[in-house]
């Protein structure tokens, strides 16, 4: 027989029976609680036991029913065990998080609970109006099992202690970070004696300024100009800057957006390629866009090349090759924008590579 420590009392007669008796009486050899309706008429139907603090701490008590038969025969005793389950304590999940949209959260951990974890739940509202069950009975719900989130989501654990009613833990909420700026585009255009850089934003939140950075190798960057942002704006804004120092050669550009609190984020990288190649045919990438295996054609007979991501980080370098074509297997790279830079006799040509 079981009861919950939070219950006031329990009817202990449900599993008992007796015949040919003159009296019935319940007792407990180790309990310190109290009986009610403990008489012959009620002993098989209505006797209850109210445990005290010592019983709850002990977690159990023996309940003995003594049946006294007629004719002075020896009394018959039947003993059952009353298990007193600690009350369910659902605990606390740690902790609230704010993450970039489309990323997975850190692990969630339940602590301070009493009982066993039945499941976890997630919901789009704090009231858990229509929760989704998560079949996990561990105290840790991993971020990998949650996966990428695109909307604010609430999580909680469901805990149950023995026969006690289940309880829901305090919930945590995973918020999506609000980007200070959303770039719509960032383009370059070759002009006479300059490179025209243009970009547009869909909205801006506490945007203090933009800094245009320039590089000749997409690795080492330097700032060339700082321009004020729109602060906070829900409408589209356009910007432009002419780099008159880029009259010849291939250059990479990116924008550093700086918030009012000093935090910053980066745009994608664009390259100018505003240099005449004469009659020489430039190298090509096939397929582009594509995925998996790519072929570089029309390469210099002897040369080298490297691949960088949109942040200018070098991902792959081929120091030398032979022939005018080269096959690349880029299965390991996720979808995105990359740049292939080919060197020949101190000159470089860069092309954009789109991986789907």
General description of the model:
The radius of gyration is 37 Å and the shape is elongated. The strands form 7 sheets. Strands 17, 18, 19, 20, 21, 22 and 23 form a 7-stranded antiparallel beta sheet that branches. The two termini are 63 Å apart. The protein has helices at residues 53-58, 143-146; strands spanning 2-4, 10-11, 21-27, 34-36, 48-50, 60-69, 76-85, 92-94, 97-99, 108-111, 116-123, 132-134, 140-141, 153-160, 167-168, 172-176, 181-191, 194-215, 222-233, 237-243, 252-259, 264-266, 270-271, 284-286, 293-297, 302-309, 314-322, 326-329, 336-344, 347-355. Strand 11 (116-123) and strand 12 (132-134) form a beta hairpin. It has 356 residues and is an all-beta fold. Mean pLDDT is 88; it is low at 276-280. The chain folds into 4 domains: 2-85, Sandwich (Immunoglobulin-like), CATH 2.60.40.10; 92-176, Immunoglobulin-like; 181-271, Immunoglobulin-like, CATH 2.60.40; 284-355, Sandwich (Immunoglobulin-like), CATH 2.60.40.3080.
